[in-house]
Design a protein that fits this description.
This protein is an alpha/beta fold. The N and C termini lie far apart (57 Å). 38% of the residues lie in helices and 16% in strands. 31% of the residues are buried. The strands form three sheets. Strands 3-9-6-10-2-1-8-7 form an eight-stranded mixed β-sheet. A two-stranded antiparallel ribbon has the order 4-5. The longest helix has 22 residues, at 332-353. Strand 1 and strand 2 form a beta hairpin. The protein folds into two domains: 6-187, no CATH class; 193-398, no CATH class. Helix 8 (248-256) packs parallel to helix 13 and helix 13 packs parallel to helix 15 (385-398). It is built from 15 helices and twelve strands.
Length: 401
């Protein structure tokens, strides 16, 4: 349905306002205000200004601040806000027209320069604009500079009170708003996934990520392990160690695909003390390690992965032991290809004996593969997903499964 013109709605909307306490923050860009607003009230006064293109005469003009909403990301947030540990500690950044803001200094909260640090801030609609200006409806009081996905994810939320901290710029012009948006997003550094997995060690309840992290630590720590000191725990080289060829993130990605396809639901079930949910039917055939995870037998998963890569190490000792350039077997592409091969290998062995495969079982599979160590030189295999697929296809073709 097309949105009704503002003038038509303004004639029917009554004056509305929301009042709350806010801290005045002074920075070079100008003053702004930090406050707390319940999510349902925040949704009522905010709108998305999606960045797009409009044609003006003979040139194209960029309009708006925000990027397009990602439906997948919004759906993930909608699920996340209903979990026990849901939290948005960083501020939603808003821009408010100065006509919609009123301030009242709080007695006793005045700084040495005479300005108030704590104020009562009232945001209100503006229905009687000056000539040539549009009215500002209650729903359009605040433009979202940063945080559109979080707010969209909270639309329809029906859980306990979910307060949001906000940073409000009053009277900032469009160039300033655009600069703030660019600065906020360019300054953010994406957290290393290996570090994220390492932090799961602090979780008190079980989760697929924690299980995979603990197995990574075990295989990296034990001297007899085929992956001894090969895993970069934090995603970067560990000081004082040499020969690390695989990040923890890569290790976990290869393993977790056989344990869970919905880690959020599994994590939430454990925190609530409920049974782990059954996976979607389309995943039942591939989640070969999930039964052990669900039954709390993580040691079986660890032993199986240990035995699998011990067999790889024994079959191709030169390729597996090379940590420099020119080889791929123990690097991301080789490891990912080997983990893809684990599925048909495991299912073949289970079908033969109906028991957890041992190193001897994996030895027989790899023993049937007529490939030399040189097959895993980098001149034959490109990096990335194409290299992963090359390794997998090569193993599957040569194996007698």
């Amino acid at each position: 349905m097309a949105r009704e013109p503002i003038a038509g709605l303004a004639n029917r909307e009554d004056p509305r306002a929301i009042t709350f306490y806010a801290l005045r923050i002074k920075q070079p860009v100008g003053d702004f205000y930090c406050a707390v607003i319940p999510s349902d009230k925040l949704i009522e006064i905010t709108y998305f200004d999606i960045r797009g293109l409009t044609q003006k005469d003979d040139f194209t003009d960029f309009m708006g601040i925000q990027r397009e909403l990602d439906p997948g990301r919004v759906a993930d947030i909608k699920r996340y806000v209903n979990t026990l540990d849901a939290s948005f500690p960083t501020a939603i950044v808003l821009a408010v027209d100065e006509r919609c803001a009123e301030f009242e200094d709080v007695a006793g909260a005045v700084e040495a320069d005479g300005t108030a640090r704590l104020v009562r801030l009232t945001l209100k609609n503006h229905l009687s604009p000056e000539e040539g200006l549009d009215p500002i409806l209650y729903r359009d009081i605040a433009r979202i500079i940063d945080g559109q996905h979080r707010i969209a994810g909270l639309i329809g939320y029906e859980g306990p009170t979910f307060e949001m901290n906000v940073s409000i710029f009053v009277g900032a012009d469009m160039p300033t708003q655009a600069s703030i948006f660019s600065t906020v997003n360019q300054a953010q550094t994406k957290v290393n996934r290996s570090l994220v997995y390492d932090l799961y060690a602090y979780q008190k309840t079980r989760s697929p990520e924690k299980t995979c992290h603990e197995i990574a630590v075990l295989l990296d720590r034990e001297k007899d392990s085929p992956l001894y000191k090969m895993i970069k725990r934090l995603g970067v080289a560990t000081q004082g160690r040499f020969g690390e060829t695989l990040s923890q993130a890569s290790f976990v990605k290869g393993l977790i695909q056989y344990i869970s396809r919905d880690v959020l639901s599994d994590r939430e079930a454990a925190k609530r003390g409920k049974p782990f949910p059954s996976p979607a039917a389309r995943y039942e055939d591939t989640l070969i390690l999930r039964p052990f995870f669900v039954s709390g037998e993580d040691e079986i998963i660890a032993d199986l992965i240990w035995d699998y890569f011990a067999a790889v190490q024994e079959k191709w000792p030169q390729a597996w032991g090379q940590t420099g350039r020119g080889w791929v077997l123990n690097k991301t592409a080789g490891y990912a290809g080997l983990m893809r091969f684990l599925l048909p290998c495991y299912k073949s062995l289970i079908g033969q004996s109906n028991r957890v495969p041992t190193k001897g079982d994996f030895d027989r599979v790899f023993g049937s593969i007529q490939l030399s160590d040189d097959a895993f030189r980098s001149e034959h295999i490109r990096p990335g997903t194409s290299g992963e697929k090359y390794v997998f296809d090569m193993l599957l073709e040569k194996a007698e499964l």
